[in-house]
C-alpha cells in the first residue's frame, strides 16, 4: 500500500476524532455521530491496509 493512501486513511481517522470532539463540545449529537463514523471508517481502512501488507510478505 502506498504511503499516500496510508496517510489519507490516518487523516480520515484523525478528522473523525476531531469532529467527534467538536460535537461533544458544541453538544451536537449529529456532529458527534458523524465524527464517530468517519473515525471508524478510517480505522477500518488502516486495519485493511495492515492485513494487505502482511499478506504481501
Q: In summary, what is this structure?
A:
The chain has 57 residues and is an all-alpha fold. The protein contains two helices and no strands.
Descriptive notes:
The chain is an all-alpha fold. It has one domain. The protein contains 2 helices and no strands. It is elongated and about 45 Å long. The protein starts with a helix and ends with a helix. The mean pLDDT is 92.
Q: Which regions are unreliable across 5 or more consecutive residues at pLDDT < 50? A: none
Helix content: over 70%
Main pleated-sheet profile: none
Structural class: mainly alpha
Please indicate the percent range of residues in DSSP E strands (runs of 2 or more).
under 5%
Overall geometric form: elongated
As for the number of domains, it is 1
Overall pLDDT, averaged? Answer: 92
Number of helices: 2
Distance between the termini: 12 Å
Task: Provide the gyration radius in Å.
Answer: 13 Å
Question: Based on DSSP secondary structure assignment, what is the total number of beta strands?
Answer: 0
Q: What is the element string, with H for helices and E for strands? A: HH
Layout of secondary structure:
Elements: H1 3-25, H2 29-56
Helix pairs in contact: 1-2
Give descriptors for this structure.
57 residues, mainly alpha, elongated
Amino acid at each position: 500500500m502506498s504511503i499516500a493512501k496510508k496517510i489519507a486513511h490516518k487523516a480520515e481517522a484523525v478528522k473523525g476524532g476531531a469532529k467527534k470532539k467538536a460535537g461533544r463540545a458544541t453538544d451536537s449529537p449529529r456532529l458527534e455521530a458523524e465524527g464517530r463514523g468517519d473515525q471508524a471508517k478510517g480505522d477500518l481502512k488502516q486495519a485493511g491496509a495492515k492485513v494487505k501488507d502482511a499478506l504481501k510478505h
